Amino acid sequence: MRTWRGALVVVSHDRALLELVDATAELRTGSLTTHGGPYSVYEEWLAVQQEAAQRAVRDAEQTWRRERRERLRTAERIAHSQRRGRTDAANSRYVKAVVDDRRNSAEKSQGSRRGAADAAEAAARAAVDSAQRAVRDDDRIVVDLPDADVPAGRRIAVLHGADGREVILAGPQRVALTGANGAGKTTLLERLLAGPSAAGELCTDRVGYLPQRLDDLDDDATVLDAVRAGAPQVAPGELRNRLARFLVRGDQVDRPVSTLSGGERLRVHLARMLLADPPAQLLVLDEPTNNLDLTSTDRLVEALRAYRGAVLVVSHDREFLARIGVDTVLALGPAGVRPAG
Question: pTM here?
């Protein structure tokens, strides 16, 4: 990209890659918004715009509340005037012609005041609606990880190193497994999960696994049944509420897994892994950001940073690894696993 001299359009969720572009264009709700500079500059600009939009909503709501109070006060004054008019008529304090004239005049005045107050409140309400439309309300997954109950230093997994030494995952450690494509990272994870082998062994049976291929769900099962398999003690209604936080809602919950798109399948995988009961003490993640947009990746990062269990993750996304607080990096090569660097 740095040496290419022609025009270039890049579609990506890779933040590092998006820092190499000259301009950023975002497609949202059928409209394209462009901004000069890389994605981080656009993100900063958008944050300023959204802060201003939220401030405009607060100001508009304050004006609307003021106009609504004024309309109610106007209605009270009109009601008081009407009661007094009825009292005067009942007491026959004035001749009928005078009473009728005053009533007609009052009704015209009251109608004018009522109309003005209604119009002012309606305009203020419209201003609130307009301001709210400028505030983003994009759906985003909400990932809340339960306490994994992993004491510091507790052995969670053991990997067999290239030199014969053991690489131990202990406590809430974050370990990244790197290596070239085709080096066998996914194979190593699958062998580790299958049981003691030359790859290593697990020291807990509470393991959550997010595969790269997303093909280990039963295609004939419904989404609810697929997730419930990992949390059989949780009531279906509660699982539906939790699935909604992963943007799986309504009829989607009862759809067969085979009908899901790639992004939907990933969210169901995440839900099954993260909603397991009891919660996993080790999360094994194989390229977890492949099918996530930038906002959903941000939510996953926040959840993993708060997670108190161990994490073993395969990823080529260096920024993602840095953001989740990886403290050990292992490289897989022809000779096996060894500390990177």
Answer: 0.68
